[in-house]
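Input/output pair, single chain:
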Amino acid sequence: MSGHSKWSQIKRQKGANDAKRGAVFTKVARDIAIAARAGGGDPDGNFKLRLAIEKARAVNMPADNIKRAVERGAGGGEAEQFEEITYEGYGPGGVAIIVEAATDNKNRTAADVRAIFTKHGGQLAGSGAVAWQFEQRGVISLPLTGQDADEVALLAIDAGADDVDTDADPLEVYTAPTELEAVRRQLETAGVRIESAELTMQARNTIEVDVSKARANLRLIEHLEDHDDVQRVTANFEIPDEVLAEAATA
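Output:
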């Protein structure tokens, strides 16, 4: 799971920058509205909405903003215009990339995503071209504040987790999508502090690319993520430590 752990580090570093310019609030609010539209405005009865709200709280989104996003989704209106779409493509060196978007104009978003791929040495592919290389997983991040990593890992496995990366910081727990909520609840009941819990796409296997191609793929991914309609981007390449260190100081 080391590849996913490196991606998590990149996401946390980029998330801090996104929060500074408010971009993350826009994307999280859209997640909340779409979840509320699909399953209702009660987070106790809508697991996807509960995850979206927890993610919003994790990035310090004001409670009033969360409330408005829920109401907008549950009450229809703006949220009804948005549709969740997944795009697939290749980055430099044949890296497989999944782009999850939420848009009110499919033609515009598809054209924009295609242009970003092309400009940065990649290409947009057809549906199913790379999706088979990824699977949906539940990921729970646990900051180890004075707790033993092995003990926490055993608690997670006993709660139903599939795997635990004890080398990650924070520790990462992986579950089947259907088990994410149950594992999260059991860990909370056991007194384990949870930083985040979310459903995410994860590469089944990763490939190695040289440093120059790794940098090129990260530039491509950064430009994709900067697009207003793009919610998440996942790729299947290993990030060299040298490039990871560069991202940490960017």
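The two ends are 24 Å apart (CA to CA). Strands lie at 83-91, 95-103, 123-125, 134-142, 163-165, 171-175, 196-203, 230-235.
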